Q: What sequence folds into this?
């Protein structure tokens, strides 16, 4: 999608602070971090929201989590004593503002529950 902010990051038109990348997944630091580690893990292929997922996307979603796991390891927050939160907002009421699927990886501080 030419008009999508995160597709522009995949194409290189915009250069985010990349922390991990493989063939299908890109992970970069959030511009407005909500925790010491706040990374967005995105599929390189454009999918707008969770509602748009198809059966054939199941493996790709698993790969987003494996990407998050790798980044958590890199950031030193993967140990049992540490921890992190992954969040995927879907549509307006959940607070989704960028309509290219992304998994937030948040960590480096204690997390409250319930979320806001
Ligand atoms: P969401 O509200 O779940 O759609 O998350 C979108 C996230 O993208 C927010 O946390 C924003 O801070 C982040 N964001 C927006 N623009 C950029 C950008 N240019 N580079 C990195 N992160 C961004
Ligand atoms: Zn996109």
A:
């Amino acid at each position: 999608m030419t008009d999508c902010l995160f597709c522009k990051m995949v194409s290189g038109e915009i250069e985010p602070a990349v922390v991990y990348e493989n063939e299908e997944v890109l992970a970069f630091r959030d511009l407005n971090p909500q925790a010491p580690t706040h990374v967005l893990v995105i599929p390189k292929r454009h999918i707008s929201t969770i509602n748009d997922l198809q059966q054939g996307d199941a493996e790709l979603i698993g790969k987003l989590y494996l990407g998050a796991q790798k980044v958590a390891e890199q950031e030193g927050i993967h140990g049992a004593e540490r921890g992190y939160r992954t969040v995927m907002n879907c549509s307006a009421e959940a607070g989704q503002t960028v309509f290219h699927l992304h998994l937030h990886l948040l960590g480096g501080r204690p997390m409250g529950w319930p979320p806001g």
Observations:
- DSSP finds two helices and five strands in the chain.
- The CA atoms of residues 1 and 7 lie 6 Å apart.
